[in-house]
From TrEMBL:
Source organism phylogeny: Bacteria, Bacillati, Bacillota, Clostridia, Lachnospirales
Species per Swiss-Prot/TrEMBL record: Mediterraneibacter butyricigenes
Name by which UniProt lists this protein: MalT-like TPR region domain-containing protein
InterPro entries: TPR-like_helical_dom_sf
Length: 221
């Protein structure tokens, strides 16, 4: 499996992952944990809940042993559980518990902690808690900035969601500013002819349209 690559044989790939979990001799636990933790979000892209549940159960069994894994692995397990949780209050608690697993933010775990804050912010946003949503979204982006991670792929959905949230809160200018900053970073580190750059421009265009429609509606009164 090539990390991050979309393939048209994903059903066969998921079957292969399931066979690996059931049949492989697990003689290198750190690499096996990494394998499981990379497979889960890939399955999430296709809403393959059966496989996602299988990975969660496997991680639960492995991480019962204190000598296996670390705080980040246990935080990820809770984050995975939150992904499949249908009750908002329980999903929020799981994300908060995941954050509580990590006492010290370091270069090694900053990306994970940033993602956890972003996920928690998204849950608060969906469930009508804008102040808490803003707090965690801003913390997630602050960590990316602090650890020089704004150029990585994770920053795009985080900043795009934050910009849309600001637009919903009648502050589109701040959202546009964040996206323009991100555009410059992607152009500097990668190119302005890549999919990541295009995604940011698409979100910018959406906000411009939303803002224009809002202004037009206001002008009719």
């Amino acid at each position: 499996m090539i990390h991050g690559m979309e393939v048209d044989y994903y059903k066969k790939l998921f079957q292969t992952i399931g066979n690996i979990i059931e049949l492989i001799e697990k003689d290198d636990i750190p690499k096996y944990l990494l394998f499981l933790e990379n497979a889960f979000p890939y399955m999430d892209n296709y809403n393959y809940h059966k496989g996602m549940n299988g990975i969660i159960q496997e991680l639960k069994c492995l991480l019962k042993t204190k000598s296996i894994g670390n705080d980040s692995d246990r935080a990820l397990l809770l984050d995975f559980q939150a992904t499949l949780e249908t009750k908002p209050e329980k999903a929020i608690k799981l994300e908060k518990d995941a954050l509580a697993q990590i006492e010290t933010i370091t270069v090694d775990n900053a990306r994970l902690v940033s993602n956890l804050h972003a996920n928690l912010g998204g849950l608060y946003r969906m469930n009508g808690h804008p102040d808490l949503a803003r707090e965690h979204m801003e913390k997630s982006i602050s960590l990316l900035d602090q650890f020089n991670l704004l150029h990585i792929n994770d920053s795009i959905p985080q900043i795009a969601n934050y910009a849309m949230f600001l637009t919903e809160q009648q502050k589109p200018e701040r959202g546009i500013s964040e996206l323009q900053k991100l555009s410059g970073i992607i152009k500097e580190y990668h190119s302005d002819h890549c999919l990541d750059y295009a995604k940011v421009q698409e979100t910018l265009g959406t906000i411009y349209l939303m803002t224009a429609k809002s202004s037009a509606s206001q002008n009719t009164f």
